[in-house]
Amino acid sequence: MTLHASNVSWKRGGVLVVDGVTLHPGPGRMVGLLGPNGSGKSSLLHLMAGAATPTSGVVELDGAELGSLKRKHIARAVAVVGQHAHTDIDVTVRDVVRLGRIPHRGAFGGTDADEDAVDDALSQTGLADKSDRLWRTLSGGEQQRTHIARALAQQPREMLLDEPTNHLDIHHQLELLALVARLPITSIVALHDLNLAAMYCDEVLVLKDGKVVAGGTPADVLTEDLIAEVYEVRARVSVDGNDGRVHIRFDAAARHEVAGESRVSGTRSVLHP
Ligand SMILES: Nc1ncnc2c1ncn2[C@@H]1O[C@H](COP(=O)(O)OP(=O)(O)OP(=O)(O)O)[C@@H](O)[C@H]1O
């Protein structure tokens, strides 16, 4: 069993921002959550983290509705890496990563196993030499990696990541997604970069206006037609190398044309409001 969302909808501020979404990732799979700004990716991750209750439908962990489970029970299985995290408090990188151990701690505080998990997470994210630095003095990318390390220290079975490559340079983007792909856990990752999704995800789910537009392997889903329909961008999609992964090349000159077409069909155009 794993974390499942079945036909979930969520009304926020009177607007349906997640609309009948079903996501049943296979254990150990890495699922990319794709879609334009405001399509409902973060909202779906909120629901799957148990941070909000769906208006209808159900999110279950091992067959039990999230709302019926204790937070600590959920936190032992599911780690969340959100988009924004700030603090002005003077905490070290190691302190932040240690937070990941809270769901596992007994009444008598931390153990050697907790410290081992923290060391391991720091080393996997390349932060071992920064563990004594104050978190607020790190660069945006280093702060982001600290949050990934905190999630790894949690030793979860499921990981929910909301645009984890934000702020990361290309080296660390590739390294981070390769790390998540390697982990023997189920991960759901909201991403904007379609090429990164194609490179690392086993499956992708594409949302638009809160609804699922398509789901399946990146090669099956990320077609030129889908990209034009969902993102209003023209692209060339080709198979890259011999691993069957697709590569997407965006056609900058054709953006106006696609945006123009969508205007004619009545869809809101970002380029020509
Ligand atoms: N706190 C809130 N209250 C009301 N509506 C919200 C709230 N947060 C987000 N929304 C709305 O929910 C819709 C979906 O937003 P969400 O953040 O889930 O999309 P997203 O796909 O993650 O977007 P992005 O790619 O820009 O991060 C948007 O229309 C957004 O304006």
Q: Can you walk me through this structure?
A:
- The protein is an alpha/beta fold and 273 residues long.
- It has two domains: 3-222, P-loop containing nucleotide triphosphate hydrolases (Rossmann fold), CATH 3.40.50.300; 223-273, no CATH class.
- The chain is 33% helix and 26% strand.
- The strands form three sheets. The protein has a six-stranded mixed β-sheet with strand order 6-7-8-3-9-10, with helices on both faces.
- Helix 4 (112-124) crosses helix 5.
- It is globular and about 55 Å long.
- The model is unreliable at 262-273 (pLDDT under 50).
- The structure holds adenosine-5'-triphosphate (ATP).
- Adenosine-5'-triphosphate is lined by residues 12-13, 17, 35, 37-43.
